[in-house]
C-alpha cells in the first residue's frame, strides 16, 4: 500500500504540465480488474472479448479521463464510470491515433481525491505478430499438428494493445487478471493461479450468447482462470500466456521461490539447465541485494515467436527459445553461456526495473544497464570457471567504444520527447554503456559501499519509481559514511559527466622522461577525428600501472576541469626505460594515446616473451586503442601492426578476440576491393600458429571442451583462419560437412563438433553447391532445437548462388515461409554483410522497402538494424549518395529508425574517410608485415 501511495505522488510530480505525449495525470490508477476471454482457434480468427475495471483517484476536478488504447474495438455504449454513490454518464469517446490517447468526456466533473471505477469493454481478433497480445504457432514434432498459443510483449508501449490502461511506467498499480480459454489450454500470468471456474467471468458485460456467436463453441468447453492480485507494478510488466505447453519444476532446495520452466511438449527435455540456473541465480541476487524476491513463484517460458531475447515480466519471464532452452546434444557451449546470461539478466530485472522502475523511459539505462552488469555477477556465481565478470566487461566496453565514438550517438540518460523514439534507445548505450558505468562505480566506490547503497535504494523506492539522481543520492550518502571519494566529490558530480553527455574522452599522455611525471589532456574521442568541436569533459578515474609495480595503485581522478584548457601534471614511479599504462583494468570507457617513446616501450614488452607482464585487460585496452587511434590518424599503423603481431603468441581469449575484431574492421572496408588478398595474407601469418595450436578444424573435435575460453579460442581462430584462406581450413570444413551429408540418419548423427558448426556450415555452403544448401535447409526444418535452427539460419545466407539469396530474402518477408518473422532481420542482415550478398541485399532493401516495412510492422528497431548493417558496408561516396537519395524518397518507412539511420550514415562516412586517407598506406604495411 505504501508503494502505491509513493507511486501516486511521484506520478503527479512527473506529468504535471509536461509534454503533450504524456498523460495529463488528472486521474491516477491504483488497481485493475482485467477479464479476458480468448478463442485460440484460426477458424474464429482468434476472436476475443475483454473488460477492464480500473480503480481511479481524481487528483483535481476534471470532466474527462485520458488513458491509452490501441488496436482495440471498444464498446463505447458500454463504458461506465461510477463512484460508491454516484454514476457518471460518458458523453463522448475519442481515440487519438498519434499518441493512442483514449479520451472519455463526462457529463460533469469528478471530485478531487474521490475514488472511481472506470469500466471499459472491448473486443477484437488477435493477430500473428510480436507485440501486444499476439498469436504464435509451431508444429508439434510428435503429432505433426500445427499448434497455436497466445503470448504477450508489452514493453515499452504495447500494454495498451492488450487492454485500455495508463501505459506509462510511472503509473504503478495492482492487477487482478482473469482469463477465459478453451479447456485444453493452460493459462499462466504474473501471479499464481487463485481459482478456476466454469462460469463466464465477463457475463455482466459480455453474456455468453454474444461470445458464443464469435467463438462458435459451447460454454462447457471453456474455463476461467483467476490469478492472485499482483504487487504494484507498471503496465509494461503485465504478462500472460495461453498454451498447451508442459513445464518442469526446479529442484525445490535451490530457492525458496517456486520455479517452473515452460516449453513446447516436444522441447520440455531442453529445460533442465534453465531449471537449475534460474533458482540459483535468484537466490544469489537475494543475497547480493539483501532484498527478498517478493513474489511466491517465478515462471519462465520459451515462446516460438518472440521479438527480443527475453522480457522480464514480473513472475512470468518470456524468452526466445534460443535464450532459455539448452540441448547438450545440439546446443553449443556458447549457446549454454547465452542461456545463463539471459536468465541472469532477466532475473536481475526483478529488482532493477520491476521492484524499482524508472519514472520515464529517459532513464531506461537504470533498468537495462543494471541488469546487464549484475547478470555478469550472477553468471560468475553459478559458473565461476567462465570468468563472466571480465568477459562481459570487455564485450560491453568494446561495443561502447565503437558506437559512442559517433557524433550521432546519444547520452545514457536521454531526453525522449516522443514515444516513437523509445524503441530506439534499447541499444548498446542503454545496455552496455549503462553496464560499463555501473561497473566503473562499483570499482571506484568498492563493493561493500556499492552493495549497501543499492540495498538502501531498492528498499527506499520499492514498488515505486526513481530516476538517476535518486541512485546518486544513496551512493553518495554511503560513500561519505566510508570516508568519501578521494577527490571529495559527490557521485552525482562524477556520474553526470558520464550519463548526461554523449561520448567518452581520449586522454593524451605525454611523459617527461627527465622526471617521473607526465601531462594529461582530455577531449571527446570521435571516429571522424577533428570534424566536430565539443566542450565535453569528464571526471575520469585513472587506474595507472608502471612496469615495475607489483601491486595495483589507488584510483586517482582527473576532474572535468583538468586537462581541458591546459595539460594536467601527474606524478608516477616509472624510470625512463619503463612503460606507463593507463586504464590497465578498464575501469572506465576511454581511450589513451601516449607519446611515441612510451608506445614503443609497450610494444617492445608485448612483442617479447614477457608480454604477460601487461595485465590481460591492459592488453585488451592497448589493442583496442592502437587500432582506433590509427584509424583516426592519431597513431601510425607501423606501431599498431607491430603491436598486433604479438597476437601470434597470445593464449588468452579476450586480447585475441579484441585484436581480431579490430582487424575485422579493416577487413570490412577491404573485402570488396582488389586489396583483400593482401589483408588475407597478413592474417594467415598472424593467425596460423594459434589456429593450429588451438586445434582448428583439422582436429575434428573441440580440444578442451570443458573450458569455455579455450572453446572460444578454437572457434574464433577457426572462423578467422577460414576467412583468411589458411591452407586446409576450408577443405576441412567441406570434408566435415560432406561427412555429415553422407551419414546415415543425419538429423540424429552429426559428426561436426558442436561449437565449430557455425564456421563449418557457412564455409561448406559458400564453397559447396545447391545440394549442400538444400541439405542444410532440410536439417533446419527437421531439428527441434532452436539453437541448431539459428546456426543453420545464418549459414544459409552464406550461399554464393544469386537465385538462392534472392529466394532467401523473399522468404524473410513472406508469411508461412521457412523464416519466422522474429528471424527476418537476421536473414536480411546476414545476406547484406556477405561480400556477394551485399549487392542483392541492398537492391532488395531499396526496391522492396514498403513490403519490408509491412512485414516488420511495429518492429522499427529491426529495420534500423538492417539499415545500419547496410551502411556499415559502404566504402564510396557514390554508395552513400545513392542511399541518401533513396532515403529522401522513402523516409516515411524509417520514421521509427531515425537514430539508427543517422548512426549508419556517419559510420559510412567514417569508412569512406578511411579509404581515402589510409587505404594505400595500410595495404603497403599489410604486405610488409606479412613477409
Tell me what you see in this structure.
The structure is a single chain. The protein is α+β, with helices and mostly antiparallel strands. Strands 1, 2, 4, 5, 6, 9, 13, 15 and 16 form a 9-stranded mixed β-sheet that branches. The protein has a 5-stranded mixed β-sheet with strand order 18-19-20-22-21. The model is unreliable at about 1-15 (pLDDT under 50). Its main location: membrane.
Could you state the CATH homologous superfamily of the domain at 27-244?
Answer: tricorn interacting facor f3 domain
Major sheet, described briefly? Answer: 9 strands, mixed
Share of β-strand residues:
15-25%
The geometry reads as globular
What is the rounded distance between the termini? 73 Å
Q: Which spans have pLDDT < 50 for at least 5 consecutive residues?
A: 1-17
Total of helices: 28
The count of β-strands is 32
Mean pLDDT: 93
Return the structural class.
Answer: alpha+beta
CATH class of the domain at 27-244: Mainly Beta
Q: Looking at CATH, which topology of the domain at 27-244 would you report?
A: Immunoglobulin-like
The Rg value, from CA coordinates, equals 29 Å
Q: How much helix is in the residues?
A: 40-55%
Identify the CATH architecture of the domain at 27-244. Answer: Sandwich
SSE topology:
Layout lengths: L1 H14 L11 E12 L8 E12 L3 E7 L4 E2 L5 E4 L2 E3 L1 E7 L4 E10 L4 E11 L1 E2 L3 E8 L6 E8 L20 E9 L3 E4 L3 E5 L10 H8 L6 E6 L12 E4 L2 E4 L8 E6 L8 H18 L7 E7 L6 E2 L4 E5 H4 L8 H16 L7 E3 L5 H19 L5 H16 L24 H18 L1 H14 L3 E3 L1 H14 L9 H9 L5 E8 L4 E8 L15 E3 L1 E3 L9 E3 L9 E4 L8 E3 L8 E4 L1 H11 L9 H16 L5 H8 L8 H18 L5 H19 L13 H16 L5 H13 L15 H11 L2 H13 L3 H10 L6 H10 L12 H9 L4 H11 L1 H7 L4 H12 L5 H14 L7 H32 L2
Parallel strand pairs: 1-13, 10-11, 19-20, 20-22, 23-24, 25-32
Antiparallel strand pairs: 1-2, 2-9, 3-8, 4-9, 5-6, 5-9, 7-8, 11-12, 13-16, 14-17, 15-16, 18-19, 21-22, 25-26, 26-30, 27-29, 28-31
Helix pairs in contact: 3-5, 3-6, 5-6, 6-7, 6-8, 7-8, 8-9, 9-10, 13-14, 13-15, 14-28, 15-17, 16-17, 16-28, 18-19, 19-21, 20-21, 22-23, 22-24, 23-24, 23-26, 26-28
